[in-house]
Amino acid sequence: MPACEITIEKIDFEEPVHIVRITGALDAYSFPDFEVKVRGIFDKNGRNIILDFGKLEYISSAGLGALMGFAKIARQNKGDLIILKPTPKIGSIIDVLGLSKFIKVFWDEKTALNLFVSKAG
Amino acid sequence: MKKRRLSPDKLILSGKIRELDSLHKFVHKFGVKNTLDSKTLFDIELAADEAVTNIIRHGLKGKKGRITIEIAKNPGKYTVKVTDNAPHFDQSIPTHPNLSSDITERAVGGLGIYLIHQVMDSVSYSRSGDKNILVFEKKLK
Q1: Nearest to B45 by CA among B140, B116, B130, B122
Q2: Helix, strand or coil for residue B113?
Q3: Tens digits of per-residue pLDDT, B35-48?
Q4: Domains in chain A, please, with CATH?
Q5: Which residues pair with B127 in a beta bridge?
Q6: Of A53, A80, B85, B130, which has the most beta carbons under 10 Å away?
Q7: Whether residue B108 has pLDDT greater than 80
Q8: How do residues A52-110 score in pLDDT, each as one tens digit?
């Protein structure tokens, strides 16, 4: 399994949207880097974040705990946190913890971005 | 003819969180060797990761230790045995995180043990001398 790699893309809508693409594994060793990078977006007043899990192969409770923290911050900031393209295995773990009630899940990037376009409109 | 029981695959860690990468590789190697389906492999990997992470964080608490992970394919099931020399720490007692509460009221603690119990068919614990022994099993599909 490849180590965790994180890249961030900023989409300049009226209200910017950050797409965070994560590959590899999010576990207790790798999640601090993920946490620092996503918190960096919130710290710069970014509040709309898409987490692209399309190439994420594995997540443990450490990564899921970070996800819960981000969902709380996004809500407090009146923004949105979206998970994009989770694999069925990761989707099922997100469901086991009941997180899909609070975090929107999309399987298509265009549709996810459209949510922010329609919000701005 | 009596079936021969194969000796388990074994990995020994010293209690550093960066060793989780070795754990992932070890479980994947076992999965390939035994042609596990991807869901079963994911569940065993998750349970082993959560157990070992808890031992490192809450059992050893940053001290060097010895964690032995053994995985075996037994008749009708896969068995994972995790032995460590941390103080008494029983991960077979299920946790009950409040999953119906709102996200703003959710606590992160206890999720790891909850997940172990969710993805495994049985979890048991014993203390032998100065060792914690956690055994969890996944039925073969």
Answers
A1: B116
A2: helix
A3: 999 999 999 999 99
A4: 5-112 (3.30.750.24)
A5: B132
A6: A53
A7: no
A8: 999 999 999 999 999 999 999 999 999 999 999 999 999 999 999 989 888 999 999 99
- Say whether residue A64 is in contact with chain B using an 8 A CB cutoff: yes
Best mutation target, B23, B50, B99, B106, to test chain A (most A CBs within 10 A): B106
Read off the tokens for A90.
Answer: 């990761």
Rg (chain A; Cα; Å):
13
Question: For the stretch A2-38, what's the b/e string if a residue is b when 16 or more beta carbons lie within 10 angstroms of its beta carbon?
Answer: eebebeeeeeeeeebbbbbbbbbbbbbbbbeebbeeb
SS3 content of chain A, % helix, strand, coil (to 5): 45, 30, 25
* Contact between A62 and B21 using a beta-carbon 8 Å cutoff: no
Chain A interface includes B46 (CB < 8 A) = yes
Say yes or no for a CB contact (<8 Å) between A58 and B18.
Answer: no
Q: Which residues of B touch A83 (CB under 8 A)?
A: none
